[in-house]
Amino acid sequence: LHCLHSMASERFFEKLAARAAAVDSLLCVGLDPHVKELSEPSPAAAAAFCKRLIDETSGVAAAYKPNAAFFEQFGSEGVKALEEVVAMVPPEIPVLLDAKRGDIGSTSEAYAKASFTACGAGAVTLNGYMGSDSLDPFLRDPAQAAFILCKTSNPGSNDLQTLPVRGSDGQERMLFEQVALLAETRWNEQKNVGLVVGATDIEAIRRVRAVAPSLWILAPGVGAQGGELGAACEAGLFLHPDTGHTTGILFPVSRGISRAESPSVAAEALRVQINAARRAFVEKSTSTAAEAAPVAPTLASYQKQFIEFAIAHSVLKFGEFTLKSGRLSPYFFNAGLFCSGKTMAALGSFYAQAVQANTDLQFDVIFGPAYKGIPLGTAVAMALATGFGRDVQVAYNRKEKKDHGEGGVLVGASLQGKRVLIVDDVITAGTAIREAVQIVSGAGGSIAGVVIALDRQEVTSSASASAPSESAVQSVEREVGCPVVSIVGLTHLQAFLSSSGQDSAVAAAVTSYREKLGAAEDERAPHPNPPFLARSTSSLGVLVPPGRLNLKV
């Protein structure tokens, strides 16, 4: 019987989600038979202690979490008692073994076998300090799962877990954030990884959720350790994309239940408190969305056509995509797929209309940073000339300095004393734009602004304590002191999806993503619909009025 939990073909997190929905609970009952709470210091007393808790709380428990240490202290008989306790749990309730294992090679293989096969648990807590090879044996079977220690609830966690590190993507973040990012991406190939983040550190939960938006969080510390339930829910919950349930965070409680006069009453009271916090989260999210609705951007015709154009050419896709940052995004934008003469001409037109819609942009030269910015800058300059009668100069840089001919890294118009508009496709972290700013400034130019195709309008994974809700675009605007203009932003995608009869599930996923990771709104007015100055383009074949764009080119 003790192997039934691990032998089930159902994935652990699917089973957990189903159980949480069935009993409307995110309460995980801890089975921690402290010797002081037992009738006698024996394995039999430990098993009896746990059986009483299971019997009294099985109606409200989303999961059970036996702590291996309290059984192992009794030796081999204690391990046998642990197996018996796991077998006592009703088969529809997931069992998470709290063992915090961490080793490599054959030792890790043996620990995994002990946890899943011998003990019968469906998931186990792990220490990931030794890296991916220490985790692999536990994650190999997609039906089994692991919660990896990320930002723990003990006071000494800040000794190591908040140290700054630089990830392989070049971004600096705290060590626990790097663990969360790895858990969301590289370690989660089987979709069977969760994280342990103490409810005693709300900011840590918020930061973890920003880089690991899809993972379940085990949040110990509510009750005895002083964790704040409402704030933890607000920081860590998310709405399930299919069911709409508030989910994604599990609250383990042991002493608050086991030491109560009536464990069943205590467990039900905790479930009620957690659900009240869940309702408050939904109400706040709803009211926030309602407050934001009146200022939702109205789509200009060129913005609507650009989105349709991007979808038609598979530049903009909806689904489930893992970004370079490790986030799981409901949409993906790849401007590199604008790769023909007609699509580049149309793209230049959309950029030009965004530029013309923002009358504050006054510039003399368009600068396209290598490499993607080179064709983009050229296309925008041609579109401004043929569509708006606005002839501006163009410059770009080489990646390698040329030591013959005109020499240097700059090609095209001189930037000395000129107002320069930088053109790029997106701003992810802002690194490329900052490099471009240095090049322009070094050549004696001043930055008039930046224009991009899409503004994701989401908090960066490296957001600082001084600007925790800042997007990459807002960071560039603040640091460089210039406006960043986009053809469309994430809010425009939301408006398009809600008004164009697209798949409602896609619209809901994008809205949920925006609510969870969206940067604080800036105060710039949405782009007006600019007048289009129709001009003859037959000689250049570069631009057509947006009202007559053929989206099937």
Description:
This protein is an alpha/beta fold and 553 residues long. The protein contains 19 helices and 20 strands. The strands form 5 sheets. It has an 8-stranded parallel β-sheet with strand order 2-1-12-9-8-5-4-3. The longest helix has 30 residues. It is elongated, with a radius of gyration of 28 Å. The N and C termini lie far apart (63 Å). The N terminus and C terminus are likely disordered.
Q: How would you summarize this macromolecular structure in one to three sentences?
A:
The chain contains 19 helices and 20 strands.
Protein topology:
Layout: H1 4-7, H2 12-23, E1 27-31, H3 43-57, E2 63-66, H4 69-72, H5 76-88, E3 96-101, H6 105-118, E4 123-126, H7 132-139, E5 145-151, E6 164-166, E7 172-174, H8 175-184, E8 193-197, H9 202-211, E9 217-218, H10 229-236, E10 238-239, E11 246-247, E12 249-253, H11 255-258, H12 263-292, H13 301-312, E13 316-322, E14 328-333, H14 341-357, E15 365-368, H15 373-388, E16 393-402, E17 408-412, E18 419-423, H16 431-442, E19 446-455, H17 472-480, E20 484-489, H18 490-499, H19 504-517
Parallel strand pairs: 1-2, 1-12, 3-4, 4-5, 5-8, 8-9, 9-12, 15-16, 15-18, 18-19, 19-20
Antiparallel strand pairs: 6-7, 10-11, 13-14, 16-17
